[in-house]
Design a protein that fits this description.
Oligomer: single chain
CATH topology of the largest domain: D-Maltodextrin-Binding Protein, domain 2
CATH architecture of the largest domain: 3-Layer(aba) Sandwich
Helix content: 40-55%
Number of domains: 3
CATH class of the largest domain: Alpha Beta
Largest sheet: 4 strands, mixed
């Protein structure tokens, strides 16, 4: 009954549009009178600081009541909300997984089907769906689309280790090409006051973004990809089109042994497995890192020591890509995309919405999907840190006189909820004062890493609810176990040589073979 009533309500959008008193199907504002809807999303900070929402409200006359909390807390709150029925009009960010969409969209109809709403009211989102492969990846086996697609242009390898070129020069070392050469560089960073502040004990030779650490990607230096990042298949990889689990391979053990040795030699951040994002960033801003894993060095590196001759020499490229190191004859690296990344579960509209509210919400999202609005959601409002030069062409403004407070106010993490779906993929953003298009930092990275990148998983929905539920249970135990043992072994709390056989046996006991077969069926269904 619930499903039938919901479908009838959504169909009313197309037969009773005249009942939407002050709603405009096209152009802005969306409504004549102020309108509002609620959104639950994982993010830090305060709603009033997310200034892009104010900009969007001025354009649309629609106010978003943001319910913000850090990821772990928000997941807990969402579970309670779904159980009690007291949930928001929109649930967004990283809070939902594929199983949630299957269970609460295709199954329970807690989430509204969106394809007809998009076709009628959202031409920008419709354009995204028409990108080859996107509509197919967004459509569930029942024929409906329950999520708004989030498509971004991405480097083919996103999170990579970056190395401080100023430090390299100071210690007189060349760019490493093998793991052993890297160790020698890290030792020099540790022992030679590489940051030049007179304190030879504060350098942190190696660290990483705690939210996207995925050290297992670096097992690729020994020939296996054990990525644990944002994927439906943590620690799995495709090899010649076949899925295989890699956190039990001898090459993975070599990776563990190498990093355990680095940790023992005090070459790795002692907080690498325990720090939060702000702690990691704060240390980077103090010029404490020689190498760090990140989406880009701008995540933790600012124009510190800007006036020094050494940093002026490199400018924004003071940190550059650490190349794929050759710990074996054929090293590899984790491929995140083929140039465009699709996130499938970033926003749903719930059955709290009647036909008027659902139409207004989808129009609000469609306005966010314009090129300029999507770009401003990343770089800030035009005229502050960025300006528009032409279609998909922008230029950064000089922010050298910004105070710390102004930098924080207009920083990437503060201006918007960056986990919310948008569409930007071929923008060119010139540096301040630049007039000619140059090869981007990400393009340079793709050229460097491209020859080593492995296969990329296709996005699929399991058509077998029993498989989906079982996979979720098995993966939770296996992923938690692998992650905990990696941290214990590298940090020296346990010894990988002594525990390796027991570790393999425990993976089998947790159902690794069964999980692998489930994943093979799901991928086979998509082929």
């Amino acid at each position: 009954m619930k499903k039938l009533a919901l479908v009838m309500a959504v169909l009313m959008i197309f037969t009773c549009t005249s009942a939407l008193a002050d709603f405009h199907e096209t152009n802005l504002p969306i409504t004549d009178e102020k309108y509002e809807f609620s959104m639950m999303i994982d993010d830090s900070g305060y709603p009033e600081d997310k200034i892009i929402y104010n900009m969007l409200e001025e354009q649309t006359n629609v106010h978003v009541n943001l319910n913000l909390a850090p990821y772990a807390l928000q997941v807990e709150k969402l579970g309670i909300a779904l159980n009690t029925g007291d949930y928001a009009d929109v649930i967004a960010g990283w809070l939902l997984g594929t199983k949630d969409i299957i269970d609460l969209g295709m199954g329970d109809q807690t989430f509204l089907p969106l394809e007809d709403l998009i076709a009628k009211y959202a031409p920008n989102i419709e354009e995204v769906l028409n990108i080859p492969g996107v509509r197919e990846s967004m459509t569930l086996p029942d024929g409906h689309i329950y999520c708004i697609p989030y498509v971004v242009g991405e480097p083919e390898a996103t999170f990579k280790p970056y190395i401080n070129q100023v430090w390299l020069e100071r210690v007189g070392m060349e760019m490493p090409t093998t793991p052993e050469e890297l160790k020698a560089v890290l030792i020099a960073f540790r022992d030679q006051d590489a940051n030049g502040n007179g304190d030879p004990s504060d350098e942190i030779p190696f660290s990483g973004d705690p939210n996207n650490l995925s050290l297992g990607m670096l097992a690729g230096w020994w020939g296996v990809d054990a990525n644990s990042g944002n994927s439906d298949y943590p620690y799995f990889a495709l090899v010649d089109g076949k899925i295989q689990f890699n956190a039990n391979k001898p090459e993975y053990k070599q990776f563990i042994e190498f990093f355990a040795d680095l940790y023992k030699e005090k070459l790795i951040d002692p907080e690498i497995f325990t720090q939060d994002l702000e702690t990691w960033k704060a240390k980077g801003k103090q010029d404490l890192y020689g190498v760090s894993i990140a989406y880009g060095p701008g995540d933790y590196f600012e124009n510190f020591n800007k006036g020094t001759e050494e940093y002026a020499k490199y400018g924004e490229n003071a940190f550059t890509y650490l190349p794929v190191l050759k710990g074996c004859e054929n090293p590899i690296y984790h491929r995140n995309s083929y140039g465009v990344t699709l996130f499938r579960t970033q926003a749903v509209i719930t059955d709290k919405c009647d036909e008027e509210k659902a139409a207004i919400i989808i129009r609000w999202f469609d306005n966010l999907y314009t090129n300029d609005n999507s770009r401003q959601s990343v770089s800030g409002p035009f005229g502050i840190k960025i300006e528009k030069l032409g279609e998909h062409l922008y230029r950064e403004l000089d922010t050298s006189n910004f105070t710390d407070e102004r930098n924080e106010k207009y920083g990437w993490a503060n201006i918007f909820t960056q986990s919310l779906c948008r569409y930007y993929h071929d923008d060119v953003v010139l540096g301040a004062g630049k007039t000619e298009v140059e090869k981007s930092f990400n393009d340079i990275g793709d050229e460097l890493y491209g020859p080593y990148l492995n296969e990329h998983f296709p996005a699929v929905w399991s058509t077998n609810e029993e498989d989906g539920n079982r996979a979720s249970i098995l993966a939770t135990d296996i992923n938690t176990y692998v992650k905990s043992k990696m941290a214990q072994w590298i940090s020296g709390e346990a010894n990988v040589d002594e525990e390796w056989d027991a570790y393999l046996a425990q993976l089998d006991a947790y159902g690794l073979e069964e999980l692998t077969e489930i994943h093979r069926r799901a991928l086979g269904e998509a082929q």
